[in-house]
Amino acid sequence: MITLNQVILAGALCALANSQSAQAAQTNCSAQFDFTIDTRTTFNYDQINKQGQQTHIKLSGQLTVKTVEHNDEAGWWAIKADNVRAGSGQFSSELDSYTVPFAFKLTPMGLISDFWFPAPLDKQNQDQLKGFAYYFQFQRHPDKQLEMEQDTLGQYSAFYSFKEDQIQLNKQKYQLHNANQDALQTINIASSGHEITPSPCFFTTRKGQETLLFTGKSQSLNLKTKQQYFFEPAKQAYPSVLFSLPTDLVSWPIDNQNLSEEDIAQLKKALVRLILENDLTQIAAHDLAKQLAQFDAVISSLDDVFLKQQLPDNAQMRLFNALGQLDSNNSQLLLGTLLIQADKDPLIQFRALRALSQGRNTLSPELTALLKEQVETGFTSLDSEVTSSFYMTIGAMLYGREPDAQSQQLHSALSEQLSLETDGRIQSALITGLGNSRNEQHFEQIDSYVNNRNKSVQRASFRALGMLQTEQAYMSLEKQLSTPTHHNQMALLSALGKYQLKPAASDTVLAIAVNNSSAESRYAAIKALAAQKNQEGIKHTLKSALRSETSKRNFKAIVELLHNTDNSTQN
């Protein structure tokens, strides 16, 4: 196998063999660009229009792209940045972390659908590199435009204008990835303008500007970023290592050196010593994950540590936690393998699932294939709750990670299996999994179960619609309120509580909270009302209901609502 050290030497020798002419670059469909990216950020903890702390970063360097091959799939491109420097005021420094070569896949529409990295990288480093690739994403067909695109921040609506030899792009509305989990919750586009002069090999020039306004969960953290950038053909050919890397991505070097059998054996022994000769409960999971990263090449050898119960229970939990935070391709595969090999130990399976749900990096092709097969053939466990958790956790995993071609395979697998499944318990788990993914592509399928005669299946559909957080899902739930004595009323009210109710629905839920004969239904209604931002009229009615409320739990819930000032308007 070729190593990076060999490639660097070869790259220097073959530099001048690459023509500087644009015509040659287009013929070979490889090209080099000079770039500058100027970003100014203002952030504060009050209002965005007040003076806040400012940072100014200016990146510059060269980018090289070339066509590559991967799994007999069309549309793969390799990309590498070189001589990347960052300047902030009078300071300037080289940034080696930006120079890792990687690959991206383009759809026929010109949008990125997948990424490939030669070695495990955490999400922050992956996103850092992906940012370069997204400058090469743009649509070229005026008669087949797609409304939505995505980048590392989230999904956005795009408006294109095609004029002679230029393409103009404006982003109009953003929806952040993982807005409910991250500190930043909303993003607004103050201005956006991008101009592309296309060529057979992407473009001759690309320039643009964008100003984005971010708001935190508490609305006290605000960010304003203003970015300007310019890409143009490289003024001088540069001996990028990328030109010497093989055309087939499978043949790319994985690390700076190849590991001999002796190296692997020593690593395995050192890893076992780390795990078995230390009290893992005294090492924070985050720190343990960092230590495990040094042994990533042999992390799969830990399977016996779990399967042969070589650790005390608390230490085993800590190790699972650390593996979930490591979230490399190899650690993902280890956790996935344990799901199958520990089929007689539901606790191991459950902890492996929980660890997988912690990760934020993209799913590896190996883990994706493993999970997809288990969905299609039927996951098995001695504990039916763990079996159900398997399908539910896959949905949560998909929500927590950036969408790509791997994740879409699992979206499709869950959906297809639900259409074939006849067992009500598995149907419920699959529906919940689709809901946990929070992807609106599943709305129609989930909605088809809202009137299912199986109470468990219907309850799962309500929960899933509550998770989707879309107008369509809300309207479907609201429609169910018209059923006078709903046999899944508590699940329905709980799902509605995840939305801001419209006036008519709010009145109906309030009537249930006051008048329903079931204490459980009244409690579910009270909790749904407590989640409303506008509680005008709600508090007055519930305060009157205190006199007749017979349930201590409900009485306490009403009192808490009356004293809650976070969401409500005082009456």
From TrEMBL:
This is Vitellogenin domain-containing protein. Residues 1-24 form the signal peptide. The keyword Signal applies. The keyword Signal applies. Keywords: Signal.
